[in-house]
Specification:
The complex is a heterodimer of chains A (237) and B (478). With 237 residues, chain A is mainly alpha-helical. Chain A contains 9 helices and no strands. Classes of the chains: A mainly alpha (237), B alpha/beta (478). Chain B: It is found in: Cell membrane.
């Protein structure tokens, strides 16, 4: 899953609260759905949502991968038996439970600004003790990508290959190269970010204002209704 | 007393005064700033006695968000100071927290952007800005909150010369507005006509309080023995280096660099021999780092040729020969002890060589320690040890002296000079003092070009200053 920094202007903005409602809905659908067909509809909805948010490429790739998995399940695994069959079915059923949530979360995280998120959570009357760590996390995700670039360089200069092949030929070493600097960078960055935010009064209990006006608009209602239709349909039919 | 701890600090600062806190690393200057903005005791715990008052507020009792309205803080690392992705939201971050009304938010945002002259940055993605620009946004965010007291903790550490002068202009603006300023800093020269009082700390105590006049009157040797950097760059002159006669080993022929299909630098031609220490200068974002990454075989989008003793080298060959000591060394330390780090990733490590290198770099006492428990300078030495054990012949240092006091800079200088005996060394740096002392010549990046080969010597002083951007101090005072 790629999480990119928002570059282009979004076509339509959604309230961060809407995104959270959508996430909950799609998780309910994914875990309770009686047939994979409903999930296909869900993925299409998510892709549509992603596209209007400006994440067209991400949505296309996301749905293409899902379709490939879905078609291979329908046409190949249904007709086969044996160990391979069991292994793949078990693995794929897990993937199908997680995939929609993961794909939607990617879109939500990359299109939500930290200040929007803070204001929306504030309006939803959620405790600061929960909001602040989440906001630091949301802000931290793009820095991992920067860190990864440096670590990759360092690994290559030490003759350790930072690739999938390297992971298979020297699994221990590759993992060690990754997690130890990444953890160090993470703990330092998270600390400094937290300091920068508390010294600018993030803990202020007054209701936070926001440069961008946050409120439920017509597009929020529409998209929630669309997503709601899927579990309702699966219950009725 | 623990490193960075302080005792017996009595200091009262008047409104509108500018105080410079200086001293060696770990002398407690940052601790003092943390006591004032409330990070101690609200964020960092410890043994604490006495009291700190900001205006009428007791810093130990007042919650941090209330202190934040009175005291604004700017920190060292531009990368981890911003909380939003876009410039506008970031500048408004502090005033949003203060719950300023939405219509006033926009007014204050516009006013801040106007006064600080950062219109060109408006609406941009902060991740794409240079370090200097990021630092401006961090400053703007604090400025928008309009605090009475400004705290700056080594704000210039990651900045190039031009950005330092911009920072200085901001400080002068604050002084005109009669704001109170406290700065903890190693680079002193840009603050001499800004600071009203200079507090020298040593081992957690206030040793002396100077006026700028009495401080500038200290002799160079006294200042150096106090562990302090130059106070006036006009008095720092390039040293002539002994000429070493080596034959040309590395040749860069007409190299052009691209990044994401955009050309960055063209016509790079360069020759280098062992024993040379080449300073790489120029503003941020001019392609210095890309060039050095290409030189190490890490960046592949280029045209032209690299030759090593006459033979063409591809990326893999160069990667084998070269090593980069990064500005943030943490990224290149992987193992769980210094000893293990030195033989990490090598199939049959030569233990004798490891032993010899460790003792040469005075790392024997830390052999069993985890690299992350070491100080910045020690980590740097571990990275250097790795490069020596791997037999690298070309070393690149990326801003090795950022945020270092005089003593540590001296140590880095000595280390690099020692290494240069049988290697080619490139150093990316904005540090004029360091260049004068160590580099044998400088190459400059700017406007899509590399201009090469100014030998660091007394007669080239004027040219060197121009290239680094250290002219401003000259003109301002003359």
């Amino acid at each position: 899953m790629t999480v990119t920094i928002e570059k282009k202007k979004q076509f339509i903005r959604f309230d961060p609260r809407t995104k959270i409602i959508l996430l909950v809905l799609s998780m309910i659908v994914a875990t309770t759905t009686p047939s994979l067909l409903y999930e296909c509809v869900l993925i299409l909805l998510i892709a549509g949502f992603g596209s209007v948010c400006g994440k067209v490429r991400y949505s296309l790739i996301g749905s293409a991968v899902f379709m490939a998995l879905y078609l291979s399940t329908v046409f190949y695994l249904e007709n086969s038996t044996g160990t391979m069959h069991t292994m793949f079915t078990a693995w794929l059923s897990l993937v199908f439970k997680v995939y929609p949530g993961g794909m939607l979360a990617g879109i939500a995280v990359s299109t939500t600004r930290v200040n929007e998120f803070l204001s929306a959570m504030n309006k939803a009357h959620i405790s600061r003790k929960i909001i602040i760590p989440l906001a630091v996390m949301l802000r931290y995700i793009p820095t991992i990508r920067e860190d990864w670039r440096y670590i990759k360089d360092a690994m290559r200069l030490r003759d350790v290959s930072p690739s999938i092949i390297g992971l298979f030929t020297h699994p221990g070493m590759t993992v060690e190269c990754l997690y130890s600097p990444l953890l160090m960078a993470a703990s330092k960055a998270a600390d400094e970010l937290a300091i920068a935010s508390v010294t600018r009064g993030i803990e202020n209990p007054k209701p936070r204002t926001c440069l961008i006006q946050i409120r439920f608009r017509i597009q929020d209602v529409l998209i929630i209704l669309c997503f709601l239709a899927v579990p309702v349909a699966s219950l009725c039919c | 007393m623990a490193e960075g701890g302080v005792e017996n600090i009595n200091l009262s600062v008047n409104a509108g005064e500018c105080i410079l806190l200086c001293g060696r690393s770990g002398c407690g200057k940052t601790t003092i700033t943390k006591l004032i903005n409330g990070l101690i005791p609200h964020y960092f715990a410890g043994e604490l006695s006495g009291s700190v008052k900001v205006g009428s507020l007791d810093a130990f009792q007042t919650p941090m968000y209330q202190l934040a309205e009175k005291v604004g803080s700017v920190f060292q690392n531009p990368r981890t100071q911003f909380f939003n992705i876009d410039v506008d939201s970031e500048i408004a971050f502090g005033i949003e927290n203060e719950a300023v009304r939405p219509d006033e938010l926009h007014q204050r945002l516009d006013a801040t952007i106007d006064t600080l002259k950062i219109k060109p940055l408006q609406g941009r993605n902060i991740f794409e800005l240079s370090g200097g620009e990021k630092q401006k946004i961090a400053f703007a965010s604090v400025y928008a909150m309009n605090p009475d007291v400004y705290l700056l903790d080594e704000p210039s550490s990651n900045l190039d010369m031009a950005s330092i002068y911009d920072l200085k202009a901001y400080l002068q603006l604050l002084k005109q507005q009669r704001k109170t300023i406290l700065i903890a800093e190693h680079r002193l020269y840009y603050l001499m006509d800004v600071a009203d009082r200079i507090v020298y700390l040593s081992e957690g105590k206030i040793e002396a309080i100077h006026t700028p006049e009495s401080f500038c009157a200290l002799s160079g040797n006294t200042r150096k023995s106090m562990g302090l950097r130059a106070v006036d760059l006009r008095c720092v002159h390039p040293k002539d280096k002994p000429r070493r006669e080596h034959s040309v080993l590395l040749e860069v022929k007409d190299v052009a660099l691209h990044y994401k299909k955009r050309p960055i630098v063209k016509n790079i031609t360069l020759k280098a021999a062992k024993g040379e220490i080449i300073g790489v200068v120029g503003c941020n974002g001019t392609g210095k780092t890309t060039f050095l990454r290409t030189l190490c075989g890490l960046h592949k989008d280029y045209t032209g040729a690299f030759l090593w003793s006459g033979k063409q080298q591809n990326g893999k060959d160069r990667m084998k020969r070269s090593y980069m000591v990064m500005q943030d060394v943490n990224y290149e330390l992987f193992a769980d002890s210094v000893g293990a780090e030195c033989s990490f990733g090598i199939k049959n490590p030569d233990m004798e060589l490891v032993e010899k290198t460790l003792s040469e770099l005075e790392l024997i006492p830390f052999r069993e320690k985890h690299p992350n428990t070491l100080s910045g300078g020690q980590k740097q030495r571990v990275a250097v040890a790795v490069s020596m054990i791997c037999g690298k012949e070309l070393l690149v240092f990326d801003e090795p002296t950022s945020g270092l006091d005089f003593d540590s800079m001296q140590q880095v200088a000595a280390l690099i000079q020692k290494l240069a005996a049988d290697k080619i060394i490139f150093v990316v740096t904005h540090d004029y003092e360091f260049i004068c002392q160590v580099c044998s010549r400088i190459i400059h990046f700017g406007q899509g070009q590399m201009t090469g080969g100014i030998v660091v010597s007394e007669e080239n002083e004027k040219q060197i200053r121009e290239r680094i951007g250290a002219v401003d101090t000259l003109e301002r005072k003359d």
